[in-house]
């Protein structure tokens, strides 16, 4: 522990074009809070989206309460059962047609975080509503360097017809800053890394990138002097924590470099971090995990407290040959009860949940002062705006809520809500827990009481 006054939570290691935020250290906390065991860490919000629904028979636990067994699809989450709420019965009414005809995929994604009906148009006059993450960012964003973080594994057009007369913007974006302005997600891990750890001064950041490219340096080389100076004021425990954190930053930087290099045929992975070939990872699992690790670093360094992560766009027809599924996801979701297609859907669903388990494991591994983990401080929604991809239903959605929300929620249970309970009721409860109190949101009818 530092013998001096607490250092600012916003302290960052700085160098030419670099700004590396720090994890929560004991030296940042009042000595009285540490001694009394009243250390508080801010809550974080994350929303993860998977397309085309899931095979609900293999998703839904058979019993309610804490005495439930994880069904086949949820088995990868067994180590985190006590950090998990399985939420059954919630509905996304505004993903339904309401006279607008086909277009369930576009409506599902557009309504998932807004609770609003998307205007059916392939043109520029798109309209849906402000998403819950952006409402929280508008109220809380000034407390962190970035109000929010939007990431995903598939890009997408922001105009044109992608689903039965609906703009591509609806099926490509989950986050909406205004009712007509999406927060476009970043899919390149290298760009996310540069944003998280680069300077806000664009000229300096560009110069730093050029220097790193030229001399094949890590971003940590740019802040080494600042890091050495800070360590002099830290106790042994904080020094270890800082070293572990910076080692994690360096390891991710190297993985990003290697993954991008693989896109260049016959080009060996570089041995030094810092070179920056263009492109995202060719391997989908590594793409998800790199973005996952960057999300964890963003939460750990308090760079942001609000994030969205789209594993794939709604209606995605991505194949999964690495798990022996060579057909497109969307095509398979229209399974018609075919057993072979259902088995392949199960494989895709389980793969996505394995990646979610990876995120929970990474968050639980981060210890914060006061004996809590980063996962304890999180509220993480995982789900889809479609129930069963074959039926295109929007009731009884596949939804999980992970984390304790700083103690506000009591996970380790399967909870079923009354039929037609709006999904947006969940968001009202989550907003309350981060101090954003609004009378309603989207099509909400009240707060969820059994969380």
Question: Could you walk me through the main structural features you see in this protein, from its secondary elements to its overall organization?
Answer:
The protein folds into two domains: 116 residues, no CATH class; 298 residues, Alkaline Phosphatase, subunit A. Helices cover 33% and strands 14% of the residues. The protein contains 13 helices and 13 strands. Helix 5 runs parallel beside helix 10, helix 9 runs antiparallel to helix 10 and helix 10 packs parallel to helix 12. The radius of gyration is 22 Å and the shape is globular.
User: Mean pLDDT, rounded to whole units?
Assistant: 91
Tally of helical segments: 13
Instruction: Give the topology string: H per helix, E per strand.
Output: EEHEEHHEEEHEEHHHHHHEHHEEEH
Uncertain spans: 269-277
Q: What summary fits the major beta sheet? A: 7 strands, mixed
**CATH architectural grouping of the largest domain:** 3-Layer(aba) Sandwich
Helix content: 25-40%
CATH top level of the largest domain? Answer: Alpha Beta
Side by side, the strands of the main sheet go 5-10-3-11-12-4-13
What name does CATH use for the topology of the largest domain? Alkaline Phosphatase, subunit A
Distance between the termini: 36 Å
Query: Any idea what the shape is?
Result: globular
Class derived from helix and strand content: alpha/beta
Beta-strand content bin? 5-15%
Rg calculated over all Cα atoms? 22 Å
Q: Estimate nothing, just give the exact number of structural domains.
A: 2
């Amino acid at each position: 522990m530092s013998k001096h006054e607490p250092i600012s939570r916003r302290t960052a290691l700085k160098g030419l074009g670099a700004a590396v935020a720090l994890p929560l250290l004991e030296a940042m906390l009042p000595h009285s809070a540490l001694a009394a065991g009243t250390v508080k860490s801010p809550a974080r919000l994350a929303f993860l989206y998977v397309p085309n629904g899931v095979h609900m028979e293999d998703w839904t636990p058979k019993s309610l309460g804490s005495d439930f067994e994880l069904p086949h699809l949820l088995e990868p989450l067994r180590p985190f059962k006590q950090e998990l709420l399985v939420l059954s019965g919630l509905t996304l009414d505004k993903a339904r047609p309401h006279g607008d005809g086909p277009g369930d995929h576009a409506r599902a994604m557009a309504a998932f975080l807004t609770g609003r009906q998307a205007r059916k148009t392939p043109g520029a006059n798109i309209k849906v509503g402000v998403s819950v993450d952006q409402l929280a960012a508008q109220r809380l964003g000034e407390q962190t360097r970035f109000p929010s973080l939007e990431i995903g594994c598939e890009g997408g057009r922001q105009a044109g017809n992608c689903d039965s007369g609906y703009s591509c913007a609806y099926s490509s974006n989950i986050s909406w800053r205004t009712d007509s302005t999406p927060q476009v997600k970043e899919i390149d891990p290298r760009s996310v890394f540069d944003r998280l750890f680069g300077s806000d001064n664009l000229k300096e950041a560009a110069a730093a990138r050029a220097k790193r490219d030229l001399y094949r340096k890590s971003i940590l080389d740019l802040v080494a002097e600042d890091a050495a100076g800070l360590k002099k004021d830290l106790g042994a425990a904080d020094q270890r924590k800082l070293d572990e954190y910076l080692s994690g930053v360096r390891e991710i930087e190297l993985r990003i470099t290697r993954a991008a290099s693989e896109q260049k045929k016959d080009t060996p992975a570089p041995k030094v971090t810092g070179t920056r070939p263009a492109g995202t990872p060719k391997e989908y699992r590594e793409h998800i995990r790199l973005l996952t690790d960057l999300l964890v670093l963003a939460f750990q360094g308090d760079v942001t407290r609000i994030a969205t992560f789209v594993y794939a766009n709604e209606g995605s027809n991505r194949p999964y040959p690495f798990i022996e599924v060579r057909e497109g996801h969307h095509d398979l979701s229209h399974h018609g009860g075919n057993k072979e297609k259902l088995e392949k859907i199960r494989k895709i669903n389980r793969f996505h949940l394995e990646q979610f388990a990876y995120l929970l494991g990474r968050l639980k591994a981060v210890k914060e002062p006061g004996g809590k983990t980063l996962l304890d401080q999180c509220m993480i929604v995982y789900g889809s705006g479609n129930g069963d991809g074959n039926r295109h239903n929007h009731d009884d959605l596949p939804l999980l809520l992970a984390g304790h929300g700083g103690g506000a929620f009591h996970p380790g249970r399967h909870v079923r809500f009354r039929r037609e309970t709006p999904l947006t009721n969940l968001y009202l409860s989550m907003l309350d827990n981060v101090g954003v109190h609004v009378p309603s949101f989207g099509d909400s009818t009240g707060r969820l009481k059994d969380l």
